[in-house]
């Protein structure tokens, strides 16, 4: 799962590495569009969490046929949800970019990039959901192989389509979108092949192809709060980048590169958290809540120790990391500040992430929703605005607010987890 999460981020890192060669405004365009797509990813994560928890619970109950049927119905739901998201994104890309504070030059550069990625919404959701199905079934190696294949294709196509290598046209940042969309589509095709072949614990055969109202209702009941949970968190990030955009394209470029590096550093942490979620779901299904709780505490300790080391390394190499993606001094300065401040909170972030994923693994997606609402909307956003403007700290104030919210996230998560209500959740 850790390797899968690392591979997941290669999509964004590869895009930003090659696009950064086109200048700060191109990076800003990618960052603005990525901030819009977080709503798509938030909905995808919420749906994936629900299906993963339900598949894990059925596997724990040794009901592999029911798990396969759940997987199929989750796939159908993902396809249905993707249609309005794609249409809305395609139609309103330019308007949304301007709403986010993008300049005319940034909108001109990024509009086609955004339209292409929104058009590929179904592949975004399916790639996430089916990999979640594999994780819930305990076949995490399959998810890793899918992303290795998909990312390898993306890394090859990115420079070819961006810079027009060989017989291919020079498409600029639109080429990065085409490369990513094609790579995700190929990954989904590979996933479907694995499910039909039945090489893991699940198989999409005729028995699995069914539409059961009770299962669909359960998916929406569990996914609903999960979607809200991540939409709340993602919408707060939208407002954060809107605040950053007020300080110009260089600030957005620095923030975009810095946050991509942070996400890459944190992906092993999310891999561990996803493992904890699977263990919680399967152990609750097997009637062992004590073992589920022990798995969460062990994972939290390992996660915190690992990210403490990553944070220390980040503090030493922040400028070098930024310099790898950009030579612009202003971009490097802003991104380095973000890396340094957040690095101090890595151990807290590690524990908070595991706690929240433990709730999700138990099917208790409502609790993380309240945690995100409290930490993101009632604490992080007001603090970011106050420090950036009335206090006059600028982008540094926004960065301080982000770091402070991560500490609060961990504290609230631990407190709520120890209450133990998640053990009684039925999915």
Low-confidence stretches: none
Radius of gyration: 21 Å
Would you tell me the overall average pLDDT? 88
The count of helical stretches stands at 14
What fraction of residues sit in β-strands? under 5%
Shape: globular
Helix content: over 70%
Main beta sheet: none
Instruction: Count every beta strand, where a strand is a DSSP E run of 2 or more residues.
Output: 0
Describe the protein's architecture and organization.
The chain is mainly alpha-helical. The chain has one domain. 84% of the residues lie in helices and 0% in strands. The protein has 14 helices and no strands. The chain has helices at residues 2-19, 24-60, 64-99, 104-119, 121-136, 140-163, 173-197, 213-245, 249-285, 289-325, 329-343, 346-361, 366-388, 395-419. Helix 9 crosses helix 12 (346-361). It is globular, with a radius of gyration of 21 Å. The two termini are 23 Å apart. 60% of the residues are buried.
């Amino acid at each position: 799962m850790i390797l899968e999460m690392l591979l997941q981020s290669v999509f964004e890192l590869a895009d930003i590495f090659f696009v950064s060669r086109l200048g700060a405004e191109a990076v800003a365009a990618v960052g603005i569009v990525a901030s819009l797509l977080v709503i798509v990813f938030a909905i995808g994560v919420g749906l994936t969490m629900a299906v993963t928890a339900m598949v894990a619970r059925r596997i724990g109950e040794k009901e592999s046929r029911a798990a396969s049927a759940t997987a199929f119905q989750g796939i159908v739901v993902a396809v249905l949800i993707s249609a309005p998201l794609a249409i809305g994104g395609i139609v309103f890309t330019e308007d949304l970019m301007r709403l986010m504070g993008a300049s005319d030059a940034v909108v001109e550069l990024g509009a086609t990039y955004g339209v292409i990625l929104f058009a590929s919404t179904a592949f975004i959701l399916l790639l996430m959901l089916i990999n979640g199905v594999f994780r819930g079934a305990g076949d995490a190696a399959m998810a890793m192989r899918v992303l290795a294949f998909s990312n390898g294709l993306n890394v090859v196509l990115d420079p070819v389509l961006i810079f027009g290598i060989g017989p291919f046209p020079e498409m600029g940042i639109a080429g990065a979108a085409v490369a990513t969309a094609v790579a995700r589509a190929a990954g989904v095709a590979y996933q479907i092949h694995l499910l039909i072949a039945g090489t893991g614990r699940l198989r999409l055969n005729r028995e699995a192809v069914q539409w059961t109202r009770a299962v669909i209702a359960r998916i929406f009941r569990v996914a609903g709060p999960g979607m809200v949970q991540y939409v709340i968190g993602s919408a707060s990030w939208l407002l954060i980048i809107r605040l950053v955009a007020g300080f110009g394209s260089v600030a957005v470029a620095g923030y975009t590169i810095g946050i991509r590096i942070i996400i890459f550093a944190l992906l092993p942490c999310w891999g561990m958290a996803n493992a904890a979620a699977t263990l919680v779901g399967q152990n609750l299904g097997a009637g062992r809540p004590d073992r589920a709780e022990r798995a969460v505490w062990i994972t939290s300790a390992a996660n915190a120790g690992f990210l403490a080391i990553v944070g220390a390394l980040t503090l030493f190499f922040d400028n070098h990391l930024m310099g790898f993606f950009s030579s612009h001094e202003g971009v490097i300065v802003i991104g380095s500040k973000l890396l340094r401040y957040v690095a101090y909170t890595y151990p807290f972030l590690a524990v908070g992430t595991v706690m929240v994923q433990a709730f999700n693994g138990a099917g208790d997606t409502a609790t993380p929703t309240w945690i995100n609402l409290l930490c993101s909307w009632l604490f992080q956003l007001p603090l970011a605005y106050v420090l950036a403007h009335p206090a006059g700290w600028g982008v540094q104030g926004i960065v301080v607010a982000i770091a402070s919210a991560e500490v609060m996230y961990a504290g609230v998560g631990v407190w709520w987890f120890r209450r133990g209500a998640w053990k009684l959740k039925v999915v």
